[in-house]
Amino acid sequence: MDKNTFLLQATEAFMRGELDNVTVAGGSIVLDLVQGSYVPYGCYTSAPIPMPLFDALWPSWNAATPPGTAVETQVRVLVDGNWTAWMAFGKWSLYLKREGAAPRERGPLQLMPDCLLLDSKCATQVQLRIYLYSKNEKATPAVHLLGATVRMVDVIPSGGRPVNRTLHLMPYLQKRRAPVLAPWMDLAISLASLTNRWGADILPEEFAQALRDWRKPDGCDCRNLGFAAAAAGSWGFPAWLCWGGLNILRDEMRKGYGAVVALQATPAEKEHGLPDRRFAAVRGFVAGASAPQVLLCDPWADGTDFDAETAMPLDDFLVAWNNTALCMRKRDPDGALPGCPARTSAWLRRVPKVAPDLFAMYIGSTQHVLPDDFCAALPAPAAPAAPEEAPAEDAAPTDAPDTPDSPAEIPVPQETASQAAPVHGGILAWSTLDEHPHATTAHRQFHYVTPEQGCIRLAVPPPPGTRAEPRKYTVYAIEPSGSMLVGDVMI
Fold this sequence. Notes:
CATH topology of the largest domain: Cathepsin B, Chain A
CATH architecture of the largest domain: Alpha-Beta Complex
Largest sheet: 14 strands, antiparallel
Strand content: 35-45%
Distance between the termini: 54 Å
Oligomer: single chain
């Protein structure tokens, strides 16, 4: 890694930290096992990490979080020779109403949902810790990666050696995806572009549900990069954030890896309907006829999915890019992590007594009734606690722990999707085969609908006597965890 990006992975690296009610097993941090049961909580703390002088920090983590478990990443930094208080970035689990950190200020620190900023101060060291929680004595979260990247002060990111390389990522358009997930769909699409080139065939909607930040509107971007890296990690793809220059992207392309970047729109782009900030996947660089070009999979392009393969002049890209990237690696042959969003097969049966185009979903011999509000938004989270009082300007940062140390005071995950009834905020859609072959399932034309009487309404073929051939319909019911129920029927 670059000197401003630090990653902890594997047994040897994890063993250098402090273990409290946790252990390192199989290259991951897990809760201690006592008499056949996992303890309800534990904590891992890294050794202090020297960094170049910096004024911003982005944490990263990849963890398996089976139902009933969660993790929480915290950081503190060394400012003027003193450690600041620990700052938490929200509990993470696929099976929670995940909320990133609420924006707040504490002395020189400005906590944002996915990063920590320093105002008028700079830091020289970082320390990471991650809490592991479990409400299920037979299940534990497992932390596979923990890292941090910092924005260096008075350093101009380098460009690195030029490279001509084109990667074949999977392109998808924002406008063809589920409208209700649109505010953060470009980030989910960019993740799918990277993973699906390796044959993962993950729907952008699955990613969008898994990385969704359910915090109340607070003026900050609802797209949480820390949650995005964690979501990719849940499917087994190591992912982390890094700050740097063009050299990082060029090195990634040279090694055969894409990256997710955020781009600031120009006034002209805003006039054409682009948002102030959008996410895209970098798929390569070319010399170009007159000037170097950056190759993108841009979800905000017009046309068909493959029109998302666009090019941008390098000079324009460097102006638009904020020098932060999400990097990813191919997953191990073992595949997704335990607790990864699951796909469950279902079968569909017509309900003729109600309507000829209504179909019920079954898992085995049991009907899976879709609540009428399955696609409704989840209730708004409770109002956040009052912000902590900021210390006086002349007060030194404290290193006193601010985390409860008794089990009764340690917050644990809320009820999981599989335990609570019912969990809403899902996506329901159907697709059918057409005359065109598709590189991935997500390239099909999806029709987004809502349940009716516990069932799904499908388009039916013309009445008997016509020459229309039966068609196979596929139904997708995606929960807020990213888990999906999928089934086929010929009609």
